[in-house]
Specification:
With about 120 residues, this protein is mostly helical. It is about 75% helix and about 0% strand. The model has no long low-confidence stretch (mean pLDDT about 95).
Amino acid sequence: MPAAVGLLLVGLPLPIWAFMTFDQLVVLQFSRHPEQWVRDRRPCTFMRPATGIPRTVRSALAAQWCSISWVFVTPAWVARDPDCAGLLRRLRLLTAAWCLIVVPLTGIAAAAGLQIAL
């Protein structure tokens, strides 16, 4: 098996966990900070349908925007809520691990043509 495929399989839980963390953050925003949820254009969750959060094209686009922007900028409502701050910290760590470790190592392994024995 090519090492690049193995690295992707081993690293695959990272983005899945990141999506689940983002979903938790959106649910908390919806329930604890509804005015900020509206201001963020009503983002929906990625992986689980949350009660009361509608899924529309606009809410999906809002979720895409929030999932990117929150990695780089801490919203004020997150800074005031310790539970949300912990989730945002986890989201950032998972995103960094995927982007800075798994993806580059996969590219290096693919470029070098490395193989692993199973």
